[in-house]
């Protein structure tokens, strides 16, 4: 583990990664060196395929949630080789990222596939679709559990289970209420029977398409936003249709971005206090986010992954 003074993070990330200094200032959980070196466990190896355009923001959001656990976690970031984001410097990618070709001989305890702003395209029209499907197929034998977020969830549902996304007449953006329908699932232990979750997408996954698939379970329902948490019955795949990792201001930044582009965009639902975009929004989904990630790390990764891969 790399030191931060006389303390270290339970997540092993490069010392120069910008997200690290941000999280340290937030007093994110740190573990002292003596405790880390005497724990009779090995770090969990987590691979993050970051498809979001503003990669540094997504790194910080995901690492923050992964840090809320006594488990030691080593994180590798990869980006697509067939497409390079225009919103991140080449030096950042070279310093902190690898490609699938660099890690395909490795085995990982867990993997996260993020969202991507490409919902308007059919899956097969996405420039890097073949690369994504190769990675998803590879994960079946090389990763214990995979967490898919937003477009990553839609891609997994389509590729693994043949479920197509449905285009919405208007973008779904805002904070929506969800009701648990499988409260005994390990993923939602500690979460209230009703909880709030952020969504930002132009497409939907129909609840009936999940209900009718014998390999999937929808853990919640929402009249406005559809299912948020979807679990494969073999517990290999977890699909999150929204953005539980978002910061309080992320939807506001997206709303302003789309307005500046002249798009016909609605104000995010249930987000700004008194529906006033001049008032700072509050994070009302933080506890759910931490619980979902810690439950995933514990029950679906740590409890299931082999101590030594064959």
UniProtKB/TrEMBL annotation:
EC number: 2.3.1.31
Residues marked Important for acyl-CoA specificity (site): 119
Pfam families, alphabetized: HTS (PF04204)
Record's keyword terms, sorted: Acyltransferase, Amino-acid biosynthesis, Cytoplasm, Methionine biosynthesis, Transferase
Record's catalysed reaction(s): L-homoserine + acetyl-CoA = O-acetyl-L-homoserine + CoA
GO terms assigned for molecular function: homoserine O-acetyltransferase activity; homoserine O-succinyltransferase activity
Residues at the site labelled Important for substrate specificity: 200
Primary location: cytoplasm
InterPro entries named in the record: Class_I_gatase-like, HST_MetA, MetA_family
Residues at the active site: 150 (acyl-thioester intermediate), 243 (proton acceptor), 245
Protein localization: Cytoplasm
UniProt KW Nucleotide-binding keyword: no
Top enzyme category: transferase
Residues annotated as binding substrate: 171, 200, 257
Keyword Transferase among record annotations: yes
GO CC list: cytoplasm
Annotated metabolic or biological route of this protein: Amino-acid biosynthesis; L-methionine biosynthesis via de novo pathway; O-acetyl-L-homoserine from L-homoserine: step 1/1
Position of the signal peptide: none
UniProt GO BP: L-methionine biosynthetic process from homoserine via O-succinyl-L-homoserine and cystathionine
Transmembrane segments: none
Family: Belongs to the MetA family.
Function: Transfers an acetyl group from acetyl-CoA to L-homoserine, forming acetyl-L-homoserine.
Protein name, as recorded: Homoserine O-acetyltransferase
Record organism: Paraliobacillus quinghaiensis
